Amino acid sequence: MRALVLLCCFVASLLLPGQTEEVEDVSEEVPMRDRSHIEKTLMLNEDKPVDDYSVVLQRLRKIYHSSIKPLEQSYKYNELRQHEITDGEITSKPMVLFLGPWSVGKSTMINYLLGLENTRYQLYTGAEPTTSEFTVLMHGPKLKTIEGIVMAADSARSFSPLEKFGQNFLEKLIGIEVPHKLLERVTFVDTPGIIENRKQQERGYPFNDVCQWFIDRADLIFVVFDPTKLDVGLELEMLFRQLKGRESQIRIILNKADNLATQMLMRVYGALFWSLAPLINVTEPPRVYVSSFWPQDYKPDTHRDLFLKEEISLLEDLNQVIENRLENKIAFIRQHAIRVRIHALLVDRYLQTYKDKMTFFSDGELVFKDIVEDPDKFYIFKTILAKTNVSKFDLPNREAYKDFFGINPISSFKLLSQQCSYMGGCFLEKIERAITQELPSLLGSLGLGKNPSALNCDKTGCGETPKNRYKKH
């Protein structure tokens, strides 16, 4: 019996190494997906240098500081909208924001788009909630990790306003510089997954407020789902409320679609629409991209041609955002200028009404309280619509001005007619010139394919002193 056992062990020693090697070979042979469509669609193989937009961005920065910011600061617009534009934001690259429930493949999708899998640059991924920080992927000459407190302290970056969310949040903010060609043209932001059974205050920072900050500055927003996480809870519902008005920038992604058979995929697709229908208030249904965004090949017997076409469509959207960087930036600054102008006109109207209603025996606080509580009684908003070219759809919420004037006394503001100087002109005329002439001219020069470096004050009017209508001639 002992001899038989020894013989069996000897035979096993001869067979097992080869069998073990064969098993290892099978485990290593995971079919990987071809990446040529990514490089082709995003033009990563082209050797042309990165476009130099410094001339246009410098011109845009000058328009903002000379024509928009004076009125913005004078009427404290930032305290109404909580949106301060920095030089870093004006010169920043397009931002792509990834949102969605936990473990739906947001980090894996970023690794796949950048080709970071199995490299020291890759983001950590897993079946459990793995991303607890807001991770900003930027371009750099070498791999480098930047702490959130350093990013907020650097005024050259566009993240300095994040300091207002507190030190607890800055500890959850991290920047990673990666030497990748795509990151020369765009910045990716990975976010913590939404966990419905966790109270927001347990995060230690205002999660929804931070998300709103990134949403306001994102050029493209990917909201990612997978077939196992289609339910909508309170935190996801709040997130979609914050996305209202940004529908054109949202791309909804149903990830891991190759895990499902055809019939089940149709059911999941319908269930996703059913869940999102109450949250997206638009007349047209949102576009949902169905694919599987990771480096491994599609599962056999799945709709690989469909998934590939969906993926290419999404990449084309991303490339379009990159190509339209300057147009989007100029349009954003112009939209901001319109909002600042409307805010200044409203504050001016509140102030003028207050002065008209004040008498020698009036109590200033009671008079202004009556105006703020019922502005329609004094035709505040109707007067703005009647006397200026302002759309009623652009008017801010009346309730917002109760809080605004609760912090800022009406006596701390001046009338627009008093915001003029002999050398600098009038604040209102300068911002109107920027809205109607300078910014459209700058945008038109890009649309016509002109050389941005050839822009000068003869074409844009940047050298003209705004006419002061209050100056005696």
Automatic annotation (TrEMBL):
Q: Which InterPro entries match?
A: Dynamin_N (IPR045063), EHD_N (IPR031692), G_DYNAMIN_dom (IPR030381), P-loop_NTPase (IPR027417), TRAFAC_Dynamin-like_GTPase (IPR051943)
- Residues in a coiled coil are none
Outline the extent of the Dynamin-type G domain. Answer: 90-331
Q: List keywords of the entry alphabetically.
A: Glycoprotein, Membrane, Sarcoplasmic reticulum, Signal
CDD domains annotated for this entry?
A: EHD
Secretion signal: which residues? 1-20
The principal localisation class reads other
Q: What is this protein called?
A: Sarcalumenin
